[in-house]
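Example record

One chain of 310 residues, shown exactly as stored in the release files.
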Amino acid sequence: MADSPPADNAAAAPPGAPTTAAATGRAGPGASPTDILLLHPGAMGSAVGEVWHGLGLRVHWLPEGRSAASSRRAEAAGLLGTDLDTALGRCTLVASICPPHAALTVAAQVFERGYRGLYLDANAISPQASASIAELASRAGAQYVDGGIIGPPPRGNATARLYLSGPHAAELAPRLAGAGLSTQALAGGLCQASALKMAFAAWNKGAQALLADVHALADTHGVREALEAEWALLEPDAAERTRRMLTNAPKAWRWSGEMREIADTFGAAGLPEGFHRAAAEVYDRLAGFKDAAEPPPLAGIVAALRRAGG
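Predicted structure tokens for this chain:
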């Protein structure tokens, strides 16, 4: 475990705030973080945490209630297991990288304990959801940074980009960049990073949902082989796109929530949102492939989409 924070960082809790370690010991937003609480690392979060560990930062996580696979990933990444109150008393930065449906709940749990440090939400959520978390941070007396990660988990030869926005983004960005993880502060509004993430994933992941559904439609009518032959003539990248869709099928269970966040983003912009609500349903129907050791065959995708649809 990391050492306790220096006593000269202590600050009085605001009136009415919970009397916990989280309400004391907060460094200002311009201070370089030395201890980070990472909530709740899966494949992406553990890889990002490993990058930060490689920078010499102490990265904490909460093992209680997590799976054995999560524990193995965290241990391999050099993350330090602890409990929430202890971590909030030590950490100058809380970074949330969790499934999008949990982002608001996770943030609320932190701010309910009087945390007044820097909070980075790097989840795939709509700008509206990010703004709601920013409001929680403001009420708690904390500082908020909006974030969005684009790319695969930064491990080995794979690289990712962490986009940040908000008034503290430019200060924080260079402190979180490391091997395989570049960072960029976006100009403009508070939630620009989330907007960029939604726009990127709307195409990248939304198109994969459409492709899966098209395969199922063609198979249902007995024309899939003819469709694939036509694609070979006019859409030569369709075979590679299909391979990537199959490879990503084990992630479908958490992409459905992301599609709903994207739909909310389109709706708030006055744009049609129905496509991505349908994409969420596609991924809901593929949730049975969660944590599959190998990508399913195309026939398995088609069967799952049909079976769930009755």
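Notes: The first strand starts at residue 35 and ends at 39.
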